[in-house]
Amino acid sequence: MSNSPFTILGISGSLRASSFNSLVVRRAAAVAPDGVEFDLYDDIGAIPHFSQDLEGDATPAIVDEFRNRIAEADAIFVATPEYNGAIPGVLKNALDWASRPAGQSVLADKPAAVVGASPGGRGAVRGQADARKVLTAIGAEVVQQELPIARAHELFDEEGAMQDQESENALAEHIA
Asked: Which of 11-25, 75-89, 101-115, 148-162 has the lowest mean pLDDT?
C-alpha cells in the first residue's frame, strides 16, 4: 500500500484573471481533506485548437504535458463557467485533446468531479451538465452531482476565501 497522497488535478474552464471558477479551484485545494494533494493546471488557454493534423509526432509539447498531468493524477476536478448554456470552448478543446488519440483517452476510468460558479442565480448548472456529459463521453468516471455556486461575486473575500461557511462545507464535501 502506497503512502503517497491522493492527487487531484484542478482545472478551471475560465481564462479570466479574476475568474470565480479559478477561485473555486484554489479554494477546493485549500479545503481538501488530509491526504489529498491538489495540482492546479492553469495553462488551459495556451493549449492550441485541436486538430488531428497535430496528433502523433506533431503533438504540441503543452498538450503532452497536459495529458501527463491528467495521467499522473488520481482524479480531476473541473470548475466551469457557463457560456451560452454550455462549457467554454477553451475547456471543451482541452478535454478533446485529453481524449486523443482515439481509444487512448487519459481520462478513461479517471474519477472526475465538476462544479460551476457564476454571478447569476443558477451557478452554471447547464455548464456543469455539459462538462459532465463531455467527460462521460470520453470515459471519465464522473460524479453525477451538481454543486452550483451562485452569486459568486458576493461569495469570495479579497484573499479568495469563501465568506459563506455552508458553501465552503459543500465544496469540501464535493472534494471528499
From this structure: 148-162
User: Hey, what long-range contacts does 132-138 have (CB within 8 A, 24 or more apart)?
Assistant: 134/87, 134/92, 134/95, 135/78, 135/95, 135/107, 138/95, 138/98, 138/99, 138/105, 138/107, 138/108
Cα separation, 5 vs 54, whole angstroms? 34
* pLDDT at residue 1 tops 80: no
Closest CA to 153 of 16, 5, 12, 18: 18
Count of other CB atoms within 10 angstroms of residue 55: 14
Name the β-bridge partners of 75: 8
Would you state the cell numbers that stand for residue 94, as one nine-digit string? 482541452
* C-alpha distance from residue 107 to each of 55, 76, 137 (Å): 17, 9, 10
8 A C-beta contact, residue 116 and residue 128: yes
Q: What is the pLDDT of residue 123?
A: 84
Alpha-carbon span 71 to 7, nearest angstrom: 11
